[in-house]
Design brief:
single chain, 134 residues, mainly beta, Jelly Rolls, 6-stranded antiparallel beta sheet, 5-stranded antiparallel beta sheet, 1 helix, 11 strands, 54% strand
Length: 134
């Protein structure tokens, strides 16, 4: 079996220009294929003109309520704070077992023009493989 058979990529925050305020990503369900045991957040940037863009990872039991930050002890690495020096950069953060749903959140401050940021989750280690693609 290949990596393709054991991994899914899901968009939480489609690439968008982040300006002052909060961008909440969409919920990503870890429950597919009987449950995906591994997860990693991939943050990619385009041009970051200004501002500070703090990325966090939240989880929820139902995907719509009760969103809370994933504890730092469950992360491999740390969620980035993106600044102008991070044009064209990719950040990766491993995530231990959490509640079923994940989302990325970007909180931007001090921006006039902001910056382009996208957040995707790689889900892996399914209980049943190969993974079903939809």
């Amino acid at each position: 079996m290949t990596l393709y058979d054991r991994t899914l990529t899901k968009v939480s925050l489609a690439p968008a220009v982040a300006t002052n305020g909060t961008l909440n990503g969409t919920a990503v369900d870890r429950g597919v294929n009987g449950g995906m045991q591994g997860a990693m957040l991939v943050v990619s940037t385009g041009v970051i003109t200004d501002g500070s863009h703090a990325v966090t990872i939240q989880d929820s039991a139902d995907g719509s309520t009760g969103w809370t930050a994933v504890a730092a002890g469950l992360l491999q690495g740390s969620a980035p704070t993106v600044v102008a020096a991070n044009d064209g950069t990719v950040f990766e953060v491993g995530i231990g077992l959490t509640r079923r749903y994940l989302r990325a959140v970007v909180v931007t401050s001090g921006a006039t023009d902001g910056g382009l940021i996208g957040c995707h989750f790689l889900l892996t280690a399914p209980r049943f493989a190969p993974v079903a693609r939809s």
